[in-house]
Design a protein that fits this description.
By secondary structure, this protein is of the alpha+beta class. The chain has helices at 14-19, 22-33; strands at 9-12, 42-50, 53-60, 65-72, 82-88, 92-97. A hairpin with a 2-residue loop joins strand 2 and strand 3 (53-60).
Length: 101
């Protein structure tokens, strides 16, 4: 049976807490939980404002995985395009902007 990561305590950085809606944070955690391929310790999410919608790209390197989602901007608004890392260290997971790494 494959090992599931992201099972410990979950944390967000101050930048995420201040800039990303709680609903969008929950969506990102949920996408990680629902991932049906083996999980890499690093999950990458790219958020892009696409004229009234938000394009969210979820990817990982090992094994290779990438999936795009289009979200309604009213429900999941963002201030600017961003890249988010979610890192699992075995004990806990942390969500942060790439610029905070």
């Amino acid at each position: 049976m494959k090992e599931r990561k992201f099972q410990g305590a979950r944390y967000v950085t101050r930048g995420i807490s201040c800039s990303l809606t709680y609903e969008l944070q929950l969506l990102i955690w949920d996408l990680i939980d629902q991932l049906e391929v083996e999980q890499d310790y690093l999950q990458v999410f790219k958020l892009e404002d696409k004229m009234g919608e938000v394009k969210l790209t979820h990817r990982q390197e090992e094994p290779d995985y990438s999936k795009d989602y289009i979200l309604k901007a009213k429900e999941f608004s963002i201030e600017s395009d961003n890249k988010i890392f979610v890192i699992d260290d075995g004990e806990y997971s942390t969500m942060m902007f790439a610029s905070e790494y």
